[in-house]
Every structure is written in structure tokens, then in C-alpha cells.
Amino acid sequence: MEVTPVDALSDNYMYIIADLATKEAMAVDPADADECVALARKLGLTITTVLTTHHHFDHAGGNNNMKKLLGSTLEVVGGDASIQGMTRQVADGDELPLGTGVRVRCVHTPCHTAGHMSYLATANDGSAAVFTGDILFIGGCGRFFEGTPEQMLASSAKLATLDPGTKVYCGHEYTVKNLEFAFDVDPENPDVVSKRTWAEAQRAQGGRTVPSTIGDELKYNPFMRTGTAAVRKYTGGSDDVSVMRILRNKKDSFAGSSRPWIPGGGPLPGL
Q: What is the pLDDT of residues 24-35, one digit of tens each?
């Protein structure tokens, strides 16, 4: 299995997942269809499936163009009936084969949107990668546009059960700002400090910060650490639900935080 990140729009990530034995591939959130298809062809890959994490324009907005470029046999999957160009709605636990060496499991992770789906790709050799769209970022998570703190807790707990070595490929390059907030929450955490320093250097050199791993996120991502003393102290919450609610509200108002809107999709309300 090989994963290729592809830049899209201003700060989005698309991904091409390939089974190297058969050269078959899946595209994750190909918002810029022309760029995604051109790169796949350059790599000698045939995209058979589009995996859509959620219905927002900057993730699903290229689906119809993907169908125009690749033809009627292209399968476009997602967990939300409003996803552009969808040909198959999937549910939690559904599995999709990729070539002969990779299988993809659909993982329902609602909160950012009600039908948000993450995709866990596992190769025959046991290596795994999860594509989390906007439910989980490196060092952060997406806004609760259609969900609740309870849903975010459940979705993050579901992702936390994955093997710690599972690579995390998220939907946006928000890492530096997320880790600035994580440092505000837990400034004495050495994992936060080292990851922030690394991310700042990486971005200064024009590099990407994906992938992370599930194990790493459990060390420094405050939205996966609501039960820790530092996060509870920062929020003043008495239980995981109140901690998650307060934490998200504080992140929403944190200086310079990711914009609360979807490119081409108009404004969206926060909590």
C-alpha cells in the first residue's frame, strides 16, 4: 500500500491510496479532480473509487468532475446522502477491497457532520492508515457543525482504539495553529512542545505535517485527552462531556484559529 498526499484549494489535502501490486487506487476527498487524476495517471494508477469523508464543498466538491474524467464505472462512496455525485452510501463497518493487497473499512465518525465517515485502509502486511477528513486533525479536531460533544467523544474514542501505529491522514493543514492551542492547554507537556517545534520547522521549509499516528495524537491532541488532569484543569469541566464542550468553545475563539467557513459553501454556525 502506498499513500500519496495531494494539495488542494488553500489548505486541503486529497489522498491517493494505491495497491502497488495491481496499480488500482482510491482517491480520498478529491476536491481538485483535475490535479488528482493527473497525478494518478503520472503514477500509472487507475482510480476506481472515490472515498468522501463528508459533504462539505472542499471535500466533496470535485466528485462530479471525477466522474466526468474517469467515466461511469467510478464508484463514489460516502456516509451522507447529500454528498455530491455519490453512487453508494456506506455504513459503519462496511469494507471495500482495493486491488489484492488492501482493504478499506468505513468508520462512522459523526460530529463535524452527521454522516462523517473516516476510512481505515489496511494492507496485507498489517500496515494501516486512517483518513479522518475533518473529524480529527493533527493536534486538533473539526468544528461541531452538525454534532455534539458526546458524539465527538464517541468518535475520538473509536479512533483511539485503532493500533497506535496507524498513520493519520487528515483533511487540512491546520497543524501549527492546532499545536499552538494544544500548548495553551498543556504547556508542560513535552510531546506538545516537541511536536509544535517540529511542525513549525516543517512548515517554514514548505513541508507537510501529515501523517501523524494514532499513538502520537493520544500524546498531544487535547481533543483525545479530555480525561487528563491538564485538560480538565484548563477547561474547568467536571466530566468528559463538559470538558469537550468547553475545549471546543475555547478553540473556536482562540486567536487565529481555522476559519469557520467552507470555501464556496458560505458561512456555517459554530457552537
A: 999 999 999 999
Q: Could you tell me which of 195, 194, 231, 187 has the C-alpha nearest to residue 212?
A: 195
Task: Give catalytic residues, as residue numbers.
Answer: 54, 56, 58-59, 112, 134, 172
CA dist 86 → 49, 58, 66, 248 (Å): 11, 15, 11, 31
> Are 49 and 27 spatial neighbours (Cβ–Cβ below 8 Å)?
yes
- DSSP assignment string, 49-114: EEE---SSHHHHTTHHHHHHHH-TT-EEEES-TTSTT-SEE--TT-EEEETTTEEEEEEE--SSST
Residues 53, 54, 57, 60, CA torsion sign? positive
The reported pTM is 0.94
pLDDT at 270: 34
Q: Locate cell 479532480: which residue?
A: 33
Q: Could you tell me the mean pLDDT of each successive run of 10 residues in the chain, 271 residues long? A: 96 97 98 98 98 97 97 96 97 98 98 98 98 98 95 98 98 96 96 96 96 98 97 96 95 67 37 26
